[in-house]
Amino acid sequence: MSKTIKYPATQLAQPSRVRSGFGRVLHWFNTPRGRHTITGYLFVSPFILGVLLWAVYPAGMAGWLAFQKWNLITPPQFTGLQNFQTMYSDVLFWKALKVTSIFTFVSVPLSLIISFATALLLNTKVRGLAVFRTIYYLPTIVPAVASAVLWAWILNTDFGLLNSVLHYFGFPKVAWLQEPEWALPAIILMSLWTVGQPMIIFLAGLQGIDDVYYEAAKIDGAGKWAQLIYITIPMMSSVIFFNLVLGVINSFQVFTAGYLITNGAPQNSTLFFVLYLYRAGFQNLKMGYAAALSWVLFFIILAFTMIIFKTVGSRVYYQE
Amino acid sequence: MNTEITSDSTQTSQIQAVTKNLSGSARIGRFIIFTILLVGAVIMLAPLAFLISSSLKNETQVFQYPIQWLPDPVRWLNYLEALTQKPFFLYFKNTMIIVVFNQIAILLTSSLVGYGFARINFPGRDFWFGVALATMMLPYYVTMVPQFILFSRLGWMDTYLPLIVPYFFGGGAFNVFLFRQFFRTIPEDLADAARIDGCSELGIYWRIFVPLSTPVFITVSIFTFLFSWNDFIGPLLYINSPEKFTVALGLATYRSMMGVGRTRWDLLMAASVTMTAPIVLLFFVLQRYFIKGVVMSGIKG
Questions:
Q1: Which member of A4, A40, A291 has the closest CB to residue B120?
Q2: Could you say which of A193, A273, B87, B157 would form a disulfide bridge with A100 (CB–CB 3.0 to 4.6 Å)?
């Protein structure tokens, strides 16, 4: 769509008069190319400034800080690779990494499978589609803080909703938020409450697949299962890919639930990476260490995104 | 369903028998699908029902087992108590200040920037648009620490400035992206006609593109509202004085205040409902735009 403007040679080259440098600049302002450049940059200048101020500068500063020791009060002190050495032998760092990885590797696939399956079921011209869609999407708009408070109550051992339901089906009560082996599964379960988000995107993708593919498959004698494997999933690959990348990026940044429901407890079983980062920086005032942690987080997310792009990305089909 | 044509009458009757059978099993299939979806819907709604029901119970009923779903008597007083124990009306006002400024900042600057990327052909445009897409991948928590230091050096601690000012700079790459995508669908002829009439680029943006782009403005406005209303980490980092708390921060401290002794879940649930209700209300009024926005982010992203 982008429109390329051809500039007449006469407007670009000015052989008639010899101009001083300043005059040439002044003249350039009056050529269409000059005017486009100036108005264009004027329009996007807030954004460019913003990138420099709120992304490039802080990211660079984080790079500098990662090699310093600083408690915000006394002047920063260059310590070389000390922060990274500390990290290497820091039990809590590895614990946080493990907790966050388990959370990601369990909650993202589960969430994708459930949301995809739900979207498939909703796409069968089922009665009450709009109502179902609204109900499934509703939990995703509940504010994170309100949701955390609500789930702290749902997961309550004696009077919570989850144990009541389990008890009804004959299961014993579980102290979800007090037992180290159950706290993380509980938070994963909570995260599945918001499958409506990827589901909506899947559903829109499914509705965009042209019926002719299915008609052709039916004529060739393909059953429902074959249609799913050979048409639906390949046609949806770009949407699945998008939800996968987004899911991984988001789940590495879980904070509110860990902070408000368990605060990392019991026995650090829900010590999410960002929660540890927050504690290092804003509770223990180790700014250098926190900056080093944020760089590690960035490279982990980058690495995972790259791996997903390399392994899955090449097989993605984009409908144009 | 059945598009096959056969001339043989016996075959036709056979096929009819098959299709009749099929439609029977298809009906069963539909019934099963409907049932699964219904069970799913109940699971999705149960926490919300539990939330509302708990918020209307008295203290003894909350701690009753098994759960009594319909509160008897309905205790509306919980809301009054919860909203006065902590000054939630003040928190509400504070949050609205941030919301209003963020709306102005994001709607204005991200649409301007989006227009620049969509409609003006300047050297370096593709490079900067690439930068915009790249910043979407930069996690908030990576720049959190240095931004905090920056804002504390500027003397912005315990003010709303760190929660407002950054959004006047382009309003976030995602919003820029949404505006750009939308502006690209508007025919160039309209802009050309205005240009011939001597309209400036800013005039074209303001008189032609803004009025034609109501849907995308509403979508971005909704996302902005959701973001500012729900934001927790921002106020947690930058706001210290209780009289400057936002609703999210107020609810979070209300919860930790109850950490000691017996937690008044009834009051906490009432406060949570109060925080959630405006969003749900907005959702039901503007559902179309909510879903369109989410879908736009997914399909074209």
A1: A40
A2: A273
Residue A235 scores a pLDDT above 50: yes
| Rounded Cα gap, residues B218 and B229, in angstroms | 16
Do A54 and A103 belong together in one domain? no
Q: Which domain holds residue B177?
A: 78-299
B27 has pLDDT over 90 = no
Query: Quick check: A126 and B232 CB within 8 A?
Result: no
- From A277's Cα to the closest Cα of chain B, the distance in A is 9
Q: How confident is the model at residue A10 (pLDDT cuts 50, 70, 90)?
A: very low
Which chain A residue lies closest to B248 (C-alpha atoms)?
A145
A213, A216, A215, A200: which is closest to A317 by C-alpha?
A: A213
Count H helices, E strands: chain B?
16, 0
Same domain (yes/no): A143, A265: yes
Cα nearest neighbour of B34 on chain A = A126
Q: Which domain holds residue A184?
A: 85-315
Closest Cα partner for A138 from B74, B44, B171, B4? Answer: B44
* Amino acid letter, residue A93: F
- CA of B283: how far to CAs of A18, A144, A309, B224, B288, in Å? 65, 16, 34, 13, 9
The conformation of residue B188, written as its DSSP 8-state character, comes to H
Between CA A260 and CA A257 the distance in angstroms is 5
Crossing angle, helix B9-55 and helix A161-168, to 10 degrees? 130
Interhelix angle A144-154/A180-191, nearest 10 degrees: 130
Whether B140 and B205 map to the same domain: the answer is: yes
Task: Given the cut 0.90, state whether the ipTM is greater than it.
Answer: no
For residue A119, what is the nearest residue in chain B, using CA coordinates? B37
For the whole model, what pTM was predicted?
0.86
Whether A250 has a pLDDT exceeding 50, the answer reads: yes
Structure token pair of residue A33: 């190319």
CA angle B2, B7, B9 (to 5 degrees): 90
Phi, psi of B106 (to 5 degrees): -75, -45
pLDDT value at A264 more than 90: no
Taking CA A153 as the corner, what is the angle to CA A147 and CA A158, rounded to the nearest 5 degrees? 160
A169 and A227 in a single domain? The answer is: yes
* Number of structural domains chain B divides into: 2
From residue A167, how far is each of A152, A172, B49 by CA, in Å? 18, 6, 19
- Put simply, the answer to whether B44 touches A61 (Cβ < 8 Å) is no
- Interface contact flag, B41 A287, Cβ < 8 Å: no
Whether B138 has its CB under 8 Å from any CB of chain A: the answer is: yes
